[in-house]
Write a structure and sequence with these properties.
The protein is α/β, with parallel strands linked by helices. Helix content is 46%, strand content 17%. One of its GO terms (biological process) is lipid catabolic process.
Amino acid sequence: MSKNVGLVLEGGGVKGAYELGALIALIEKGYTFSAITGTSIGALNGAVMASQGIEKLAEYWEEAKYCPVFDFDDDTVARFRQKDFDLDLIIATGKKLLSAREIIKESYDHTLEFVYNRLSEADIRASSVDFGCVTYNISDMEPFEAMKKDIPEGKLIDYIVASACFPIFPPKQIDGKKFIDGGVYDNMPINLLARTGCKKMIVVRTNPDSKQPKRRIEQSDLDILYITPSANLGRAMAFSPERIENLKQLGYADALRIVTEAENSAQTVAAD
């Protein structure tokens, strides 16, 4: 595999720290990225990588270790996403939601401030690295998948924020339409990247192989290397300094192992 590849970053809240570790390993191994697509935290990570690079991404994750984010388990979030409501779910989460209203608002406001103060639309557009993200338009009940050239001027950061608009947060309003986390449609935007003509790509997952992507891969001639967690990464919204550091270290170790194995295998085939 050429070391100049496309990159896909899966969504997953705090599990984006795993992606940071994987990216550090990939860059150490000499990989560069021609284009990046991401969903949710993958879109945020991807936007920083495309415009500012790995050092800034690592710096922002250091800051994120101390961001107040509310803790919901992944099963509860998944059920809300799928509209799988029942009385038990409502009762079980009701007190948590009521007591957490101010925490959620504070977390949302802090997240918006954090993102808008650190991402520059001009820098993302000027970068030689292409970038795209996925969000979901709940006003028209349709996905929004776009590379930066297809996103209206002045709206790029809005759509990145919309991609990461986790279900516990209010929908992001853009031009009178409401948008939510792109993970409800495509948490692993391989197809968006492939439509640009990119054939060789690395996909950094935040979920195990057993969790299949929501969308079928449209093209059969893609050369994809998956960086897949060797352990369950846990809750998407359980932020803590220790957890972020542990996820980063696991991502680094997994990516280093997987890439080294792939390169050794390719060398063996070439020798034969």
